[in-house]
Amino acid sequence: GDGNLGILCAETVGAKHIWTQSEETYLRSLATLVGSTFASQKRKETAEKLKVALVQAQDAAIAKSQFLATMSHEIRTPMNGVLGMLELVELEPLSKPIEKKVAIAKSSAHSLLGVINDILDFSKAEAGKVELEHIHFNARDLIGEIAEAQAFTAQEKGIEIILDLVSLEPSHLMGDPGRIRQVVTNLISNAVKFTSQGEVVVSASIEKTDQDLLLNIKVKDSGIGITEAKQQQLFTPFSQVDASTTREYGGTGLGLAICKQLCELMNGKISLASEPGKGSEFTATMQVAEGIEKERTIPNINMSSLNVLVVDDNETNRLVISQQLGHWGANVTLASSAKQALELCAQRIENDQPMFDIAVLDMQMPEMDGMELCKVLKAHDDYKAMPLVMMTSIAGMEGAQRYSKIGFQAYFPKPVTTADLISALSVITSSDSTEPLPLVTPGYISSLRKEKSDTPAKILLVEDNPVNQHVSTLMLKKLNCEVILAQNGQEAINTLSEHNGGYFDLVLMDCQMPVMDGFDATANIRDGMAGDEHKAIKIIALTANAMDSDKERCINAGMDDYLTKPIQLDILKEKIEQYF
Ligand code: ADP
């Protein structure tokens, strides 16, 4: 080869000998032969060693993924308890100071979850375990919404976020809106974080390539900027410009590394131009496909007609999920193991009851896990039509599509927000079999939400109490709704009659009122007293009494849904989104 392995010596014994050319050639060949035998032996050894090293590396990668999966489970399980319980505490009447403390606890829990998600995301991408979704979304709405979510922080710092989406054409696309959201959120939040005056300009455009479309998103700020020497480093994990930045601004230094991985995964890239003191401009590109323009929204369902089976071995999780669902009126049956779940299903058949409308299964359970239970259910004639939701605290390490293949309709990493859970149940239970649904995931749900129109909802508020009138109006205005007030049921009927059908999107109806109460008013509206065009208008009861009998009375009176007082802003928001 290209080096010396050793020296081969030939000596004559006896009289002096002059080596001939052919003897020299012979010796050279001998040396080459010995050398190549020796080298091939070495190669063999090296190859052996490489094989061993490869196996070791693969083992290490598997061990790492397993470690992450376990950690993710271990961290998410208690987080589910913490967040779920905080959500429930928030629903109770609280004094102002306690309310504030709960809000702080909730926001801290969310930031902790953010950090955990970052670490997991990064490791998942590194291990090649990120699966992209391929669903329709409206890029204009998506980017608008992300910018809007950051607008408050920006406003507080006195900087402005400017959106330029003129060249974003077409805007109905197909791809992974959840991952795109992650990249854009990160870039905008960095831009806001490192800018103290001026503006952040977010512009998006579409570039047509040979096969597909390239979504191009630029985020330009007038902030502190980054020196050239540091620019390339930023995309490596855990790197920040310097330690003082971390102290001043916080952060894990993982954001840009994840953005880079995600862009590359979507066949795009991320780049940066910056000048210290003047500002930075990050450009991210991602491959997408053209989508179809189609109105798709989250359907409205009457939760109180829904029988849900929840299977989870963890008691806290069972409590959280059943209370979350119960709050919206669903009838929840709990099972602490797969065995018990099967018994409960068998019981329903024995008692001639219809099968559960939907079952929510936990993945990690002793004896029989969620996947095995799914296989058993799908193999049984009586149970196989029941839609199944996989809920796991192993954040996607297994790959969502695998669940879809064995028969799950939805896949949710824990902790699950109530809004997501309800939306998923609505989508699944009201889907008809003519159009197959993709696997319902949080990403899919939020893509549905974004397709809603942004004209304000027109709401008829029927309420006699002046304080409640004031509070509810303020909340509704905060939610960008137009409010018209009626003092009692009779006035509500009069107001509806004076308007065309379709003018009001929703009626919020108090129950106890003078002249005509909410129950009678609803019955009269359903009978056509406010005109035929208002017979089917959506009516949500506002009840002060959270007793089950009271809720039943609302539904029996013909109302579509109910909200318990005191009204919480986020629940009101969810309800309005659900019906509007
Ligand atoms: P972090 O979570 O710490 O923000 P990132 O990976 O998102 O992690 O960013 C890494 C570092 O890059 C930041 O700590 C900051 O020093 C620098 N950086 C990112 N974006 C900007 C920006 N728009 N202007 C100035 N510096 C930035």
Cα radius of gyration in angstroms: 32 Å
The CATH class assignment of the largest domain is Alpha Beta
CATH architecture of the largest domain: 2-Layer Sandwich
Q: Structural class, please? A: alpha/beta
Euclidean distance between termini CA atoms: 77 Å
Average pLDDT, rounded to a whole number, is 83
Number of strands: 17
Q: In terms of per-residue confidence, which ranges show pLDDT below 50 for 5 or more consecutive residues?
A: none
Categorize the overall geometry. elongated
Question: Could you state the CATH homologous superfamily of the largest domain?
Answer: Histidine kinase-like ATPase, C-terminal domain
Strand content: 15-25%
Domain tally: 4
The CATH topology of the largest domain is what? Answer: Heat Shock Protein 90
Number of helices: 18
Largest sheet: 7 strands, mixed
Describe the structure.
The chain is α/β, with parallel strands linked by helices. It folds into 4 domains: 67-126; 135-290, Heat Shock Protein 90; 297-450, Response regulator (Rossmann fold, 3-Layer(aba) Sandwich); 458-579, Rossmann fold (3-Layer(aba) Sandwich). It has helices spanning 21-91, 96-126, 139-156, 177-193, 228-231, 243-249, 255-265, 315-327, 338-350, 370-378, 400-406, 418-429, 442-450, 466-478, 489-498, 518-526, 548-556, 569-579, and strands at residues 135-138, 160-164, 172-175, 199-208, 213-221, 270-275, 279-290, 307-311, 331-335, 358-362, 388-392, 410-413, 458-462, 482-486, 506-510, 539-543, 561-564. Strands 1, 2, 3, 4, 5, 6 and 7 form a 7-stranded mixed sheet that branches. It starts with 20 loop residues before the first helix and ends with a helix. Bound molecules: adenosine-5'-diphosphate. The site of adenosine-5'-diphosphate has 20 residues, from helix 4 and helix 7.
